[in-house]
């Protein structure tokens, strides 16, 4: 029996297969989203963030990764809730040592999104809902339009119980299980 959700899944697979190299095709809260590659500023921020994670982490097994697709759990029993590509994912070494295109997010400790004009609404509101539902402990939003870094933590159901906002230029403490600070002046 065909359902609307299987239609969305089939359309998602078709868009994914047809997307030019470097384009991002995601299924965010049952909506297919297609984005062009990030610009140089986006790449610089992601690179700076990855470098700081490597330099400041307390747990040397943690690895920052880009290009990791995550399977997000369903919404209210409706299948096909999400396939997302965070700008940065932090997880212990070998968490993704398999051939799966879409990974189980259970080992992920932090996801980071760098909001741009084209992705801001999705990065600020929709993706954190899915990340919370997946139980990812920390969701970091680097928002250039607002000049701030938002740290979401304490996931529960479809939301994070706590959020802290920091203006660019301030140190950004990351809660456990990370437990170190980022220097937002680098963003």
From TrEMBL:
<dbReference type="Pfam" id="PF05685">
    <property type="entry name" value="Uma2"/>
</dbReference>
<feature type="domain" description="Putative restriction endonuclease">
    <location>
        <begin position="13"/>
        <end position="183"/>
    </location>
</feature>
<protein>
    <recommendedName>
        <fullName>Putative restriction endonuclease domain-containing protein</fullName>
    </recommendedName>
</protein>
<dbReference type="InterPro" id="IPR008538">
    <property type="entry name" value="Uma2"/>
</dbReference>
<dbReference type="InterPro" id="IPR012296">
    <property type="entry name" value="Nuclease_put_TT1808"/>
</dbReference>
<dbReference type="InterPro" id="IPR011335">
    <property type="entry name" value="Restrct_endonuc-II-like"/>
</dbReference>
